[in-house]
Amino acid sequence: MAVTNVACVLRRASDFEYQLMTYYLDLAEQSTREGVRLLTDYMGRHRRRLAEALERFPAEEYCRISALPLRYEPVSSECDHFDARVLPTDATAAEVLDIAIEFDECLVSLYAQVAQQDLGPEVKELFESLVHTEERDEILLKKIKATHYF
To answer: How far apart (Å, rounded) are the C-alpha atoms in residues 139 and 24?
Structure first.
């Protein structure tokens, strides 16, 4: 069993957010639908949640938290399949939103698995906060989809 720590999870989540950002911005450039371009451009520019959450920690506190070992490595295999989620240039907003909701669910799962481990109150609070942020985003995306706004 490989030993992993909070820094590994944060790096994985940060890499995933960067991939999401570039994925959405690429969709914005390639889409033939104006509503989809607006939606994906917005989504791409707002994928900095993890960095914003970590900015509240002083550098020495962040280093201490990052070094904490995890008892169990979180499973997030579905987060690594960007290649399988290729959308055509004429994809609808509903198709984009379905994928975005999947990606949010993946991050919720990853963060929840870390929050459930006994790592101290500040780590638990950080990851629970990230779970709530992603869950709120998921609800917003579902509302947008339900209203057929784009």
So the answer is: 18
Distance (Å, whole) CA 122 – CA 38: 37
Domain ranges of the chain: 6-71+87-147
Whole-structure pTM value: 0.84
Q: Among the listed ranges 28-32, 50-54, 77-81, 125-129, which one has the minimum average pLDDT value?
A: 77-81
How close are the terminal C-alpha atoms of the chain, in Å?
A: 46
Q: Please give the CATH topology (third level) of the domain spanning 6-71+87-147.
A: Ferritin (1.20.1260)
The tens digit of pLDDT for each residue in 102-142 reads: 888 888 999 999 999 999 999 999 999 999 999 998 998 89
